[in-house]
Amino acid sequence: ERGGYPHFMLKEIHEQGGVCRSTLKGRISGGSVDLSGELSMDEHTMISFRAVHLIACGTSYYASLIAERIFERWTDLDVKVDIASEYRYRDSKITPDTLVVFVSQSGETADTLAAQRKARACGAYCLAVTNVQGSTLARCCDDVLLLKAGPEIGVAATKTFMGQITALYLLAMYIAKVRGTFPIERESELIDELLQIPYKIETVLEREHLIEELASKFAFSQNFLYLGRGISFPVALEGALKLKEISYIHAEAYAAGEMKHGPIALIDPNVPVVVVAPKDSLYEKTLSNIQEAKARHAPIIAVGFDGDERLASDADHVLCVPPTLEEFSPFVTVVPLQLFAYHVAKKRGCEIDKPRNLAKSVTVE
Ligand code: M6R
């Protein structure tokens, strides 16, 4: 049932092109996103929203941080993201004109369910973005947007993260379009590129042997620092979480610009720094953070676009991914980080599919 792969996690990583493709399927027609057939929220409801809150735990929270930036870019809504275990106890202003999106692979995470009860009591419109139709979360929300990822067995979430970001991009595009805030002059460029993303994910997967080689060089490091800016910051967080969960290596992720506010003190030649550096509007800033880390003799592992010679000369190692539009880089940059974590854990002889102390779904507080 592992389809010839040694672990479910690796099988699921390799399914991600397909997951993205299936999650897009039937949701784009005539060059435009259309979710009207499956969401019950009507145009009037979508126009009446003032704010959107994205609430989740773990990897689903990191997918939400990516979506936060996309909602900010394409819509005029006030966007807020929170961890469910915080949201359920704080005094956020949740009003009937707030759309609260609960992102949960399983739809059974206790804190996310409690946060949903709170939002419901405040009269907010609740939408579940989940992989499990019929889950508690799906049943309790006003609306459901499904990821089409298929069952995920590995405790470390990989393909469901891909499904989540795909679904969340579609949602942001759809709401933005209905509200008239979507950059319509870019619609065909954005949709065409989104449809190319599954192929680009598959191209990264074909380079697994290069990532495996790199993983063997760093498998016995004790600490890692992951950096990224803008939309690449949540990718850095997710890459570090994958490494922590399955290899038990201490990995910290920081917004690259925060480095000099503290974590730079950690850097020395024994702390590899993984930098997510796609060529986007923050690229130059990220390169200067690489310089700062290099000056302290940290080995630099960068994730960047094919053909980026500057990055190749500045970093010690580059994991290349096919270039894409600035908005879509997380789809491709996260994949080498998942594979890197997997191969590091494998070299260390860890229990990859069932890491210690972790459960697939956290149904208690
Ligand atoms: O089922 P959920 O998406 O609600 O689960 C949330 C987290 O428990 C989950 O993402 C966890 O962080 C994973 N182990 C990440 O790999």
From TrEMBL:
Homodimer. Keywords: Aminotransferase, Cytoplasm, Glutamine amidotransferase, Repeat, Transferase. The keyword Cytoplasm applies. The keyword Transferase applies. Its EC number is 2.6.1.16. It is an enzyme of class 2 (transferase). The gene is glmS. This is Glutamine--fructose-6-phosphate aminotransferase [isomerizing]. It is found in: Cytoplasm. The active site is at 360 (for fru-6p isomerization activity). Transmembrane segments: none annotated. The lineage of its organism: Bacteria, Thermotogati, Synergistota, Synergistia, Synergistales. It comes from the Bacteria. It catalyses: D-fructose 6-phosphate + L-glutamine = D-glucosamine 6-phosphate + L-glutamate. Residues 41-181, 210-355 form the SIS domain. Its main location: cytoplasm. Catalyzes the first step in hexosamine metabolism, converting fructose-6P into glucosamine-6P using glutamine as a nitrogen source. It comes from Acetomicrobium flavidum.
